Amino acid sequence: MIAIDMALDFVLEHQLFGEIWILSDSRSVVQYLDNWRDVSDQRGMDIFNKLKTLCNSSVLHLQWIPSHVNLKYNNIADSLAKKGTTMPQAYVEPLTYLELYSRRKAFVNISWRHPPTH
């Protein structure tokens, strides 16, 4: 959700209107945003306010894509995200429940795919 929020900030700041595709390999985030009536946390509300602003001048698409299946742009996005985690940040907001859940789920998925050797 942080990446989507920052991407929407970038689009609004640079006035990149038209057809906008938001692709995410986080199924839980896409489902969360798809159920917009149930969103109650601050980050979710911020995202929806930005989406509402963009709807006036853009066509928006939100789509889930599978991860780790050698999709060119997914691999590029993953490498950029890894680079971004090493950059200093002035302020980091506390993680929401959904963000914590997503990180824990990813960790569990990796541990099931690569069990420890005995």
Describe this structure in words.
The protein has a two-stranded parallel sheet. It is globular. It contains five helices and two strands. Helix 1 runs parallel beside helix 3 (42-55). The longest helix is centred in the C-terminal third of the chain and has 17 residues, at 97-113. By secondary structure, the protein is mainly alpha-helical. The protein has one domain (1-90): 2-Layer Sandwich (Nucleotidyltransferase, domain 5). The protein is 56% helix and 10% strand.
Please state the structural category: mainly alpha
**DSSP E strands, number:** 2
Give, in spatial order, the strands making up the sheet with the most strands: 1-2
Following the backbone from N to C, one meets helices and strands in this order, namely HEHHEHH
Shape: globular
How confident overall, as mean pLDDT?
Answer: 80
Measured on Cα atoms, how large is the radius of gyration? Answer: 16 Å
Tell me the domain tally. Answer: 1
Using the 3D structure, state the CATH architecture: 2-Layer Sandwich
- In DSSP terms (H or I, runs of 4 or more residues), the helix count works out at 5
Write the CATH fold name.
Nucleotidyltransferase, domain 5
InterPro entries: RNaseH-like_sf, RNaseH_domain, RNaseH_sf
GO molecular function, one term: RNA-DNA hybrid ribonuclease activity
Protein name: RNase H type-1 domain-containing protein
Domain RNase H type-1: 1-86
